[in-house]
Amino acid sequence: MAKASVLIIDESDLFRDYLKSRLVRAGLEAEVAINGLDGISKMRNDPPDLIVMDYHLTRKTCKEVLEEKARNPNTASIPVVLTAQKIDKNRLLELVQYNIRKVFMKPIKMDALYQILSEITGSRFEVDKTPCIVEAHVNDNIVFVELAKGINREKVDLLRFKIRELLDLYAIQKPRVLLMLSDMELSFVDGPNLEVLLETIAEASRAKPKHIKVLTRSSFVKDFVSGRPEFSEIEVVANLEYALDGLVAEAARAADAPEQKAAIITDRILSTQGSASKGESVEMRFETENARPRVSIESAKDLGAGLSIAVVDDDFVIQELLKTTFEAINAKVNTFSNGREFLTAVRSRVFDLVFLDLRMPEVDGFGVLAELRAQDLEMPIIVLSAVTQRESVVKAFQAGVKSYLVKPLKPEHILRKTLEILKANF
């Protein structure tokens, strides 16, 4: 019996690579197309049994690809699974007629994607269901990876792509990694998964073993690492401040970062020891290049279309800077001079991203964070802070915020952090 075939049309090479490898492991044949025009060509030459396609395509738009598919009797009946960063409901309704079986908004929940792929192709996707929370992010050229509850191989595989994306996005040439293992008891039965985790981090980050530290209170992890020659230079520590001493100092020197800035990072991580995010966000774009990539207005326009942003800051200059930056990529920006104005607005609407100052009149940033938590309102938040607000930054991260920007702000830094937070595939 011939294998079912899937055509993946997506402009993120990391997403294509991951999904193709996952489909092949499930016994499917998989082909990839790098843009809309390439997708039309491959669809016409070798019609697949299923198409997984991103809505945001160049050379030919998503609608043009679907129209071409409908005109060809050999491809008209092929089912389509559509992915999208953001899509207007009216535009989505226009596409329903083209045999779209399911639409997944990014970040994609992979177990749900596997379920629909299984239903369409008849293939079985083995999924590791071990409870696991994974988060990866960058602050000043250090990659922080946090795992909680357990080690899930599926999510470790996704972590490989997240690390590669972060290295690319921040152009980190000499990576340093801190792996934090929280809220988990490990034993010899976890040895194979721990080995995969360490190998994945080392290979994806390309960091030297001496630049990787593991923070854990597990004696098993310490014994496991010291007993493997390939991991022997990785230091396992139970004290977070000690773990960061070398990493922060070296990263700060490499990036010519002020020592004050490095100190903020230390306090930020110290404030979150033993806890992990409630979810994981694995983001992909392109593989690391040697030259430092510039995040330009043009390259971010796809992200900005239809994006709704709130700027909560009493500084008019900051308001205008963020408005100018985001309106240039076709995003809509609403400004609020204090927390009370913003909290009134979120009673009737939700923003895609919030830039939040900590010190404001009437209701400050901490009051906003407390009220959002009380109302169970979840929105991505980037804290704006002056370097001297050391205690404030720590307190903000204790309130659940994971990202910050230090004033004064630069448009490129604003866009790069926005990409890290929002441009996630799964």
Labels describing this entry:
alpha/beta; 3 domains; globular; 5-stranded parallel sheet; 426 residues; Rossmann fold; 16 helices; 41% helix
Q: Can you walk me through this structure?
A:
The chain has 3 domains: 5-121, Response regulator (Rossmann fold), CATH 3.40.50; 133-270, STAS domain (Transcription Regulator spoIIAA, 2-Layer Sandwich), CATH 3.30.750; 298-422, Response regulator (Rossmann fold, 3-Layer(aba) Sandwich). 41% of the residues lie in helices and 19% in strands. The chain contains 16 helices and 15 strands. It has helices spanning 13-25, 36-45, 62-71, 89-95, 110-121, 153-170, 191-205, 219-226, 240-254, 259-270, 301-304, 316-327, 339-345, 365-374, 390-398, 411-422; strands at 5-9, 29-33, 50-54, 80-84, 100-105, 133-139, 142-148, 176-182, 212-215, 235-237, 308-312, 332-336, 353-357, 381-386, 403-407. The strands form 3 sheets. A 5-stranded parallel β-sheet has the order 2-1-3-4-5. Strands 6-7-8-9-10 form a 5-stranded mixed β-sheet, sandwiched between helices. The longest helix is centred in the middle third of the chain and has 18 residues, at 153-170. The protein is globular, with a radius of gyration of 23 Å. 38% of the residues are buried. Mean pLDDT is 82; it is low at 257-295.
